[in-house]
Amino acid sequence: MSVRWSTIFPNKPTLTEKNLPDQSGKVFLIPGASGGLSKEIASILYQKNGKIYMAARSRSKTNDPIDSSTGNMIFLSLVLDDLTTIKASASEFLAQESRLDVLYNNAGVMVPPQGSKTVQGYELQIGVNNLAPFLFTNMDYHEEGIWSKYSRSKAGNVLHAVEYARRTIGEGIISIALNPGNFVTNLQQNMPRMQLAVFKIISHAPKNGAYTQLFASHSPTVTEKDNGCWVSPFGKVEPARKDLLDTVLSKQYWEWAEEQINKYK
Ligand SMILES: NC(=O)c1ccc[n+]([C@@H]2O[C@H](COP(=O)([O-])OP(=O)(O)OC[C@H]3O[C@@H](n4cnc5c(N)ncnc54)[C@H](OP(=O)(O)O)[C@@H]3O)[C@@H](O)[C@H]2O)c1
């Protein structure tokens, strides 16, 4: 896994809860809203009166509304380690909404115990971080290191974002992959102690991860010209890694993922 300078020395966030304009009338769909960065961005958008679909597997963990908002927080059941459940979640959303301003595909797991699998038997990270969000958006592993598997699932996210951008040119959709930064959240629950101690030195307050996402979703400087770009922490457009811009690779990966999800559509 290569590390960019911006991961260690993040850029200053340009968009925060202080300068984000009112979000009344906008609809946001936030998988992973029960914790971490998703909860942070949900809280900011809600403060700004947005309508937020808190997509999570646990209703009780998403209840955190504040009074001073005219926004709305609505629970949406979303279980990402079982592909058979995704269609129903998407249908439930579509039954309630005809617009969607931003989908934050942000739920995820990292370095679970080796051998962890989804209900369909996919390695947990490729299933939860990549295949299930791919299915949600679209309505033979050898025993390699668990970090490699995490990196693979995340590289897959970039390939999907870039390929989605290519496939939707001119449709008014902007598809972006991002690195939010480093934050101690529930994500590190399986990280070995020594690694976690080092990670803590280079991590920041989780709200900054929301700032990275806010930049990607709301910055007036991010326009269709940036479709398929990559955003570094805490909000700067950078070209995606060269190998992840390979058109043949992203097409192949898209088609492989499509084969995996087709039977659940
Ligand atoms: N934190 C960092 O330093 C960092 C750095 C780079 C990238 N990221 C990326 O940022 C994203 C968010 O990370 P985070 O730090 O916010 O992690 P987090 O605090 O662990 O939150 C992850 C969220 O994903 C949900 N989730 C996990 N498995 C699920 C499943 N099977 N079905 C439904 N929901 C599930 C969790 O729900 P439960 O509460 O139900 O478990 C939780 O709400 C991830 O994609 C991660 O790879 C994070």
TrEMBL record:
Name one matching Pfam family.
Answer: adh_short
Q: Does the keyword Oxidoreductase apply?
A: yes
Q: Among its keywords, does the record have Repressor?
A: no
Q: Where is the signal peptide?
A: none
Q: Which domain of life is it from?
A: Eukaryota
UniProtKB keywords? NADP, Oxidoreductase
Protein's recorded name: NAD(P)-binding protein
Any one Gene Ontology molecular-function term assigned to this protein's record: oxidoreductase activity
The Swiss-Prot or TrEMBL record describes its family as follows:
Belongs to the short-chain dehydrogenases/reductases (SDR) family.
